[in-house]
Amino acid sequence: MSAFVIVDTSIRDQEAYEEYKALAGPLVEAFGGVYRARGGELDVREDDLWEPTRLVIVEFPDMDTARAFLDSEEYAPVAEIRHANASCTTVIVDGV
After folding, report:
1. Structurally, how many domains does the chain consist of?
2. Residues of the domain holding 60
């Protein structure tokens, strides 16, 4: 069953964040991930619990693969770039 990594991102340094995007994309693909949304236009209909900023949705083959990607040694230095230049909330959710 597919799993989705959903990230809400508030970017502080757009130029530096471009480096993150360039490095993260190939790693996502190496782990079998496919971007389903990557910062496109938002039409927020309800915001009782949170107000999304910039959403990224990546589909992985399963929960274990999504976790393996986020916890991988390859992704760790790339994630550091994201952490230095953006604030994020990241969740993994099982698909149906």
Report:
1. 1
2. 3-41+54-94
Q: Answer whether 82's CB lies under 8 Å from 13's CB.
A: no
Q: Calculate mean pLDDT across residues 13-36.
A: 97
In a domain, 64, yes or no: yes
Task: State the CATH number of the domain containing residue 74.
Answer: 3.30.70.100
Domain membership flag for residue 49: no
Backbone angles phi, psi at 78, to 5 degrees: -70, -40
Q: Bridge partners of 93? A: 4
Question: Between the CA of residue 33 and those of 3, 6, 13, 37, 63, what are the distances in Å?
Answer: 10, 12, 25, 12, 11
Provide the β-strand partners of residue 26.
none
**Edge-to-edge strand list for the sheet holding 55-60:** 34-38, 55-60, 3-11, 86-94
> pLDDT tens, 67-80?
999 999 999 999 99
